[in-house]
Records
---
Amino acid sequence: MNTENSVPQFSIGILEEHTQLTLADLCRACAIHAEQIIELVDVGVLEPQGREPAHWRFGGASLHRTRRVLRLQRDLGIDLAGAALALELLDEIESLRTRLRAMGGEY
Amino acid sequence: MEFKDYYAIMGVARDATQDEIKRAYRKLARKYHPDVSKEADADARFKELGEAYEVLKDAEKRTAYDQLGANWKGGQEFRPPPDWNAGFEFSGGGFTGGDEADYSDFFASLFGRDFRAGGAGRASPHAKGEDHHAKVLINLEDTYHGATRTITLRVPGVDAQGHVITRERILNVTIPKGIREGQHIRLSGQGSAIGGEGQAGDLYLQIEFQAHPLYRVDGRDIYLDLPVAPWEAALGATVKVPTLGGIVEIKIPAGSGSGSGRKLRLNGRGLPGDPPGDCYVILAIALPPADTEAARDVYRKMAQELNFNPRAKMGV
């Protein structure tokens, strides 16, 4: 299907809404080990459904949340708890900015 | 190629200690980190900073860089001296987590391409190609109606002679209805494969909205400022409103235009979804210009007839 003349067509869903990821999916997509994901669940950055790791199901939004926390940790030299706090504050700032913009404020 | 003044980029003196360099890096990294900063050029600044730190934090590289002399200015045309590199042996290792592929030609000319590839190995617990990430700018109409977008990706590859080339790959991507800013579309198997075999990685497209002249977005809700005449707000009226789904008529109740009556909600007329968002119409009273004698007469009549002090609540 990858010929010069026909451009491949893709019809897909929204990652954040239509995708559920297993622990293995998430490890692969973020190129990290399961232990690191388990740590992220322990500090509450990720909140999977299901009781034990083998049955965990992560929402699609977990993927970029994980990548973001890892980048913050790696690039800024902060520990996991610090990165988790930064992530929460950044989320809050983002939603406030969106609110402000929607109300017609400058941002 | 352009000379890069790594000391200027990091804002430190040429004789800065390693501790000072580290502190400067930490501080600037927090400021320009693309996940934190809202500055438009944060991405480029952060990469530049990572490159500068890569060189200055490493005693070997810093010494080599210093050999170029202090007379160079950032942006100046630069060519490495012919005997460059003689007498230095770089030990590899010690790369920052920064993306080595993003380092400039200037960096590569000094420290080599192989050198940077030899650094931090990527943890890859499963044999699968790399995932790719890209951003797509769409407008609100695209997410409201759904749309197909042609996306051009630049993919590094190797030609028949073994040269590294950049190929353009064109994909037609369906933008799902109701996708919101910051959400992603995953195209399975559209990343790169490892050495042309095995399972290819995935391609992730992050959605960004183009600023819209009329509408603002909050989640699935749409906000719209609607100008109304003073008499429409005071007496009530039926007026036309442009929404993403087309023009609708709404009834403005008498006495709107101030306080809570300023905001009207059109149920389900925001972005599609389950449940769909709403459209909020914010009434903005527009004053008719007093640019004719007749118009000025109307204002004079209002001044006489209406006992209205807009500053009554201020006690003046």
---
Amino acid sequence: MKVLMKGNEAVAEAAVRGGCRAFFGYPITPQNEIPEYLSRRLPEVGGCFIQAESEVSAINMVYGAAAAGARAMTSSSSPGISLKQEGISYICGAELPCVIVNMVRGGPGLGGIQPAQSDYFQTVKGGGHGDYHMLVYAPNTVQEAVNIMYDAFDKADAYRMPVMILGDGMIGQIMEAVELPPIKDPANFPKKDWATDGTGVGKDRRIVNSLYIEPDVLEEVNHRLFARYDELKKNETRYEEFMCDDAEIVLVAYGTVARIAKSAVSELRAKGIKAGLIRPITLYPFPSEAINAIAAKDCVKSFITTELSMGQMIEDVKLAVNGLKPVDFYGRTGGNVMTPEDLVNYVLNKEDK
Amino acid sequence: MEEKIIIAGFGGQGVLSLGQFIAYAAIADGKEVTWLPSYGPEMRGGTSNCSVVVCDKEVASPIVARPDCLIAMNKPSLYKFVNNVKEGGTVIVNSSLIPDKVERTDVKAVYIDAQELALQAGNARTANIVVLGAYVKLSGLFQKELVAEMIKNKFANKPKVIPANLKALDLGFEAAGK
């Protein structure tokens, strides 16, 4: 049965159903419904909810709980995610699974509280220090956010790395009908033979750490992580194509902006302009091969990347297109959101030139 | 079909819940829907609005620039959005708080004395439900009985307020038919 739920609350419920039993966070708009919901819901399933004294402390609680083998998560919005970066780098260095939700708002600084996509660089290019990546999803509907959250802990466990769900103020605040999947039984979760849960003693002593003083040892860690990222690229890259078969102008957008772009594509088609859309669902790994394949098609004349930023994902689009076709940009910032009409007019003006 | 609605007014007028009732009814009716609130630093007395899109297939853009229907609960909201309404669209005006007439001649303007009708229904706080009733009548999207069910579900734990809300729905529905 479908129920009408707010994005934030639906993500929170999906987390519980996907096995989350520990949440640590600090309030910030526009994601407050996630901790609010979990503060009531987690105790019902024997889980743990703590409102920490700061974002720094919350992410380090996630570090600790993940090290002990729990399915732990945190959520925040842009300024709060900035504060968590040190902890995220440590968690990646310690090869621990967890889930982090970022309902992005405008920046830099405290910025605003309205939707934005200006944390793309921070999310996929690091943010914290060191050579690391996370598995990054950008859902565009509440249902997709639910489905991704539901399996996020499985992915995090499988690859022993954080999964980040990158939403925006809109996906957090919107209400849509969702089908909630059944609650997963923790008895079926994979055993964690590395977790510091008190079972390893003597020879099998378990240590969770991100400090590797010996250069050769650290280099081995770096290579191990990157071998895992190669696996991610092979197995986890996800994207959606919409009307790309005969498209001459291909829009590239992620998250809620992709829905606006989808409406724009339909309007352009109605006006006789062959538009299409490619929507990365994973931002890391980025669907570079799919974009490159489209760029190589004779019918494709140009790409337009559209984002709620001054242009961040466009760099990855350009790398993927690799000079085969021009890549233009249309963006809004500050918490303003483009309408489908804005995109249609941008394309029509470009066509006139 | 695709119906795009903007509902706007003061915080505290029940603007967001009015939109939610439309969303609940849409789902119960087997349609797809998005409900997107403005979530600025609003407070009681500040301005508040939400965009609702009802569609028979998956809703693409939840952002509404050109609504089929504007529900304006106060004067600033009317002037903020009235020029965006599609040609041939509908503007529902809460005439209890808005003495002005809609100047555009290419839209259908309907004036509902929501406050007065809410008092007649027995609860001053049901003005949003009066307007919901008017919307149900004007849009023809759902059966009134379906929306009445949504109201009963929503207030299941506050059964005391159900009769006044159902009466408000009826009064708004009738007022829009006049």
